[in-house]
Structures are given as C-alpha cells and as structure tokens.
Amino acid sequence: MIKRRGMLIVLEGCDGCGKSTQARKLVDALNTTPREGEGSLGGHVTHAELWKFPNRDTAIGRLIDEYLQNKCEMEDHAIHLLFAANRWEMVPCLLETLEKGISVIMDRYAFSGLAFSAAKKKKLGFQWCKIADQGLPRPDLVLYLSLSSLEMEARWNKKERDGTMVYIRERYEKVAFQNQVQAEYGKLMMGEDNWHVIEVNNKSIEVIHRNLLNIIKDNVKISTEKVIGKLWL
Ligand code: DGP
Ligand code: NA
Ligand code: NA
C-alpha cells in the first residue's frame, strides 16, 4: 500500500462564525472508525488532529494571548510578526504529523494573519504582511465560513447575554472591525483554487458540518497524492 501523507485543512472566517465548533466536529468525524476497516473517507483519512492558531501555549503564544486580552499593547508590525512566528515555530511538528499520514484540521492559519493585520486602520502593507508567512506549508483546502454582519451582531449579543459568566470581548471582537476582516478575506481568496466558501447564516451546525465533510471527501484523493506545497511561493 502507498503511504499517503495527511491532509492540511484550514478553517477561516471572522470571529464567532463557528469555526472552532466545526473544526472539532470534523476531527471527530474523521477519527470515527467506520465498519469494514475502512477509513471514514474511503481509507484515505484515518486519523486527524485538531490544531489551532494562535497557539497560546508557547512562549510566543502567551504574549499573543496577553495582547488579545488587552493586557498589553504592541506595535502593529511587531504583533504581526509574533503571530507569524507562532505559526513558524510549529512547522517542524506540523510536517512530521502530515508525514505520518495524520491529517490536520487547523482552526485559523496565515490567512487570519493577513486579514486581521490588513484590516487595521493604520494599514500595514499587504505585501509586507504576506512575507512573514510566505513559505509555510500550503493547505490542501481552505474552508471559509461566511457570516453576515447582522447575524454576527446577533451572535455576539447572545454570547454576552447567555451563560453565567460575563463574556469579555477580545481585542478584535467588534462588528465593524470584523466586517473589514471579511472584506480582506475576500481579497485573499481571489484566484485561489483551494478555497471553498460556505455560507453559514441560518444554517444548523449539522448542516454546515455535512457540507464541510462533503467538500473534504471530494478533495481527499487528489490532495494526499501531491507533495505539500509552500504558501505564496
Ligand atoms: P481565536 O483564538 O481563534 O479566537 O483567535 C484570536 C484572535 O486573533 C481572533 O480575533 C483572530 C486573531 N488572529 C488570529 N491570527 C492572527 C494573526 O496572525 N494576526 C492578527 N493580527 N490577528 C490574528
Ligand atoms: Na476569538
Ligand atoms: Na473560535
């Protein structure tokens, strides 16, 4: 049997679009051992891991975490580079994982880096922003969850009203900024053949999940047979 590498699948979108929920569900679905000894995707994907960026557990990630919680200020270029460094520090482990045949479902990646930094008022140059992440492993698939600003606002209000805990919004969690972020994502996906846009307004978690799983199924063979590429090179 040919040994296949794992797939690198990235979920992107504004804050509150449901990425993390969907990422968890995808990993669970891909790890479910189906009958007759076949992988859940016809033997191609048999094991998957959930990864998340920023990875707040590393030394760099702890700085990012403080910044996002507004516990410290950081110059825009400097924080952009820290986010990128936080992805680069995980590359050896990421490549090792994919080599082992394990697929990675990634909750945010370099596209967040570009979209969030480029959405800032004092714009950082788009090309300058790109360079920091250029050369990272290129995802096989980018699943972009698209949310309307009305639905976004409604979700935020619900989150703040719900639970017993007071929800404190992080630095970027404002609707006007998130709309700008979505506009930047729009620029990023132009001309890319590995992006899929999924409208999530008024759709149930289950419907979106099946939607995503079908896109993965349609792409799994082609992807795992190719050597992993390099981003923006
Ligand atoms: P999350 O843990 O997924 O809620 O993401 C934390 C926040 O950080 C979210 O608002 C998106 C933002 N973010 C993620 N990656 C980057 C990045 O590379 N650069 C910038 N400026 N922001 C990012
Ligand atoms: Na967030
Ligand atoms: Na999330």
Automatic annotation (TrEMBL):
InterPro entries registered for this protein in UniProt: P-loop_NTPase, Thymidylate_kin-like_dom, Thymidylate_kin_CS, Thymidylate_kinase
Entry's Gene Ontology BP terms: dTDP biosynthetic process; dTTP biosynthetic process; dUDP biosynthetic process
Catalytic class of the enzyme: transferase
Superkingdom of the source species: Eukaryota
The enzyme's E.C. designation: 2.7.4.9
Keyword line: ATP-binding, Kinase, Nucleotide biosynthesis, Nucleotide-binding, Transferase
Pfam families: Thymidylate_kin (PF02223)
Gene Ontology MF: a single term: nucleoside diphosphate kinase activity
Domain Thymidylate kinase-like: 11-210
Pathway in which this enzyme or protein is active: Pyrimidine metabolism; dTTP biosynthesis
A GO CC annotation given for this chain: mitochondrion
Family (UniProt): Belongs to the thymidylate kinase family.
Protein name per UniProt: Thymidylate kinase
Protein species of origin: Capitella teleta (Polychaete worm)
High-level lineage: Eukaryota, Metazoa, Spiralia, Lophotrochozoa, Annelida
